[in-house]
Amino acid sequence: MTTQIAPRPQALPEGFVYLQDIDATILQEVRYAGYHNFVGRPVPGYNAPVIILTEAAALALKAVQEELQRFQLTLKVYDAYRPQEAVDSFASWADDPSDQLMKIEFYPKVNKKEVFELGYIAKKSGHTRGSTVDLTLVPLPAPPQPTWKPGDPLRDGSLPKGDRFADNSIDMGTGFDYFGEAAHTHNPTFPPEVRANRLLLVSLMEKHGFKNYHREWWHFTLMNEPYPETYFNFPVE
Q: Does the pLDDT of residue 6 top 50, yes or no?
């Protein structure tokens, strides 16, 4: 009987790590490796559902995760390092007005041709520098979550929790990657519970060196990032 040895992950550039090697307790739901995202298909450059980021950012997330244990919560990461190839594909998607496949859930109130101007899509992304991360908070033990499949119904991502897609996170007011004012971190129109949930995430992330992007409650960049001027293009695999 022969022993099957799992293939080793790719050799990452110096200073990059797999998040699972730094903290395997942090949940990962790599949306761009699958179909449940604003383009509705796997994104070029995402060859596996794994989270890669700089070691500095990973260690900072580990510190956040350790603090969350007292709240019986865990981080769940949707995206971190993003190849330039993927960023280019988003730009091409934004320039194609005929592709509105996922509009109902992700940008129901936004004209697609305005996504650059409104700051939801960029031709250069902090994600590509390796120290930007998209994430949320999930209660422990983590509730089950359905797997969205092509052809499943789409629901406006700004609907109340219970009416939008049943993500297992605590109530952050919108789903991940919702393009619109409802996703703006300090939107005052939500009930106190939602605003408190966003404040908890922002406070803990800021404590450990991250800065939030005000238009997306889930988006954070390590302030002392190691590669502030370098945009990488190796695959996620």
A: no
